[in-house]
Design a protein that fits this description.
With 266 residues, the chain is α+β, with helices and mostly antiparallel strands. It has one domain: Jelly Rolls, CATH 2.60.120. It is 28% helix and 21% strand. It has eight helices and twelve strands. It starts with a helix and ends with a helix. It binds succinic acid (SIN) and manganese (II) ion.
Amino acid sequence: MKLTDQQVAHFHREGYLFLPELFTPAEVAVLREEAGRIYAEQRPEVWREKSGAPRTAFAAHLYNEAFRLLAAHPRMIAPVEQIFGEKLYMHQFKINAKSAFTGDVWQWHQDYGTWARDDGMPEPRAMNIAVYLDEVMSINGPLMLVPRSHTGGTLVATHDLRTTSYPLWVLDEATVTRLVEQGGIVTPTGKPGGLLMFHGNLVHGSAGNITPYPRKIVYLTLNAVSNYIRTPTRPEFIAHRDFTPIEPVADDALIRYARTYPAAAE
Ligand code: SIN
Ligand code: MN
């Protein structure tokens, strides 16, 4: 799969690109089913909200076959290789639950702020990919992006260790207000299977989910191999140290796996 010149230009100008329904309902059904199983496990990679509801499952591509296939999927790897012009490795892999009724906020932040400060990543040459496992609606805590906010570099941030169960380098209100006055806020909503890619310096966040509709999203951070992290401080399951270039699987790998999995593919 190759992005058009127009799509590449949109990414560079706005800082994000949304490709609706890139994965089929059968492919997504397997991933959704497997995400539910993973959240039910008690393991260090699964972080919970203060309420106890699942928040994030890290590194599932290392212990789950369906997510291993997703992590090397050519529909995602090829466009990011196209943009960076080199091979990629997986810097971070997480399945965010944003559970019905209890899914908590993600404060305004830039991801590269954390990758630089906590992991020693030299440049913002890592791409965030969001794959929607549930429908993302305007009401169930969609990801909110500030278009064009990636052009101002890495902004001053403070390390918030209190608001949620997950530490995050967050931006202050004055900075967010200034950037939103310039670029507005967009919420790319859509059906399961949608893929959103966004720049490491794009400002984003999401509100809590008080609806009965869960909003699971898989986030993959694909880093250019030459931009490997130099001084990691976080656990290996959060900031990976295996810099081996990803070799894509076949385009139908997930769908073939789904066929061996009747309960989810029905
Ligand atoms: C993130 O920024 O890493 C996650 C945001 C979200 O899932 O809403
Ligand atoms: Mn983020």
